[in-house]
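Example with several molecule types.
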Amino acid sequence: MKIHVAGEASLIIVFAGEASPEVSRKVQSAAVLLEQALADLLVDLTPSYASLLVIFDSVAASHRDVSKRIRSALMDFDCVVGDTGKRVEIPVYYSPESGPDLPVIAARTGLTQQQIVDIHLHCEYRVYAVGFAPGFAYLGQLDARIATPRLPTPRNSVPRGAVGIADRQTAVYPAPSPGGWNLIGLSPLRMFDPNAEPHMPVQVGDRVVFRSIGRETFFALGGELPGGEWR
Amino acid sequence: MSGFSVLKPGFLTLITDLGRFGYHRIGVTSGGPVDASAFRWANRLLGNPANAVMLEVSIGGLVLEAQLETRIAVTGAETRLTVNGESKPLWCCHRVRNGDRIELGFARDGCRSYFAVAGGLLVAPTFGSATTVLRESLGGLNGEKLTAGDQLHCAAATDGPLLMLPESERPDYSAELALRVIPVCRHGTFSRAQKRRFFSAEYTVTDRCDRMGYRLNGATIEPAVDGILSEGVCLGTIQVPADGQPIVLMNDRQTIGGYPKIGAVLSLDVASLGQRMAGARVSFRPITPAAARDALLSAERRFRQTELVRLS
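Resulting structure tokens for the full complex:
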């Protein structure tokens, strides 16, 4: 674990050079511990793949003070790491009408569309980070056989609930937005709702599995197909 | 409940407080006023709590009608403020009454004005804050910028002092801007030569500058890697994507990023940068974290100790 200065009011704790379930657990546990240890000094925390950004009240404390408190809070911390994440199931309607890039990935990989879906369903994923937009959860690691680079030109508009893949990650769009991920299905589950509690069905450190649902179930669960063309 | 009605919203007018904190872990950014300094002066002039809600007016063009008696103050960009057609000074409190028409012209120097009322605007918070972040559709009135016909609520304030900020304390938005930067030295992403080049070059603000980030144009800086494992980014972070042109991340930035970083601009200077438009020239100057904190503390002292001039 290393602590670096990231800005006038922030330090970044780097736990490892790359992401793994174990590193992710550490990030998650450290976030819980620091929330208590830094209390009033804490302004915000940004957990990510292998790091935790700590934003603090820079009028009240110096980098040195905060760094000391982080070190003391995270001393012996390797011993307390447990898997606190929950397991969340996300229903997905996979089809060319709900996932317009399925045929493209099939052509690229030589797999059938059904094989692509089966591979996507087979893994249990981990929420490594949330960012890009409120509720956008980066899930890893995607099976290398269906890993696909981002679109050369992002779509202007990706509907809420679109399930995308990019390199070895997958995600569900929490709100309509521009986006460059390859779309393979639609989920009726809302990944972000400012008026609901909790605001997200998943958080960093949780595990996610996808479940295939048919067209009728998709509509019954409140899903909607976007009108018109996929741009 | 009355307050002000919006006759013309202007180019981009947003309801804001100091920002939304504590929700980065669900991807919600902090928002808040781009020029936090002008924001804070407006609240101090009116004797408001530091976080009282006001309007950030980018470029200008706002026209409001008062529906009650209160005091207002406008700080920030150099622009023409009129009440019923009569010019009024900025950085100063004014009394307004039911039926008064308040107009903000277009910014001549700087680009963001702060329009505050005594006691602050009354806006229901989302995730603890009224600040509007358009990209996230959060805050303000339904997550949107002001439009004609919107109603802004506040309480009447029939008395209270009319105060003014001394001219000597007002910023000059056309001054040369040397942004103070805490260098970030990790991943071996920038060689010593590249860092020297960055800190000795001059950059121009491009037209791709908004509340998310300011893209600059100037000497190309070559990072040794294309990207890093995505991690949290703070206000003022300077990212250098593959094209070698730096981007300073502003209030509405995404919470995590994977571009190589060369440093982070001091918040006091992010505020000054946010008053610049395309074509403005800026340079960067490295400072230590300890010097950054000294600068923050001294700015804080000055803010608290400056005596306002009493007009009535």
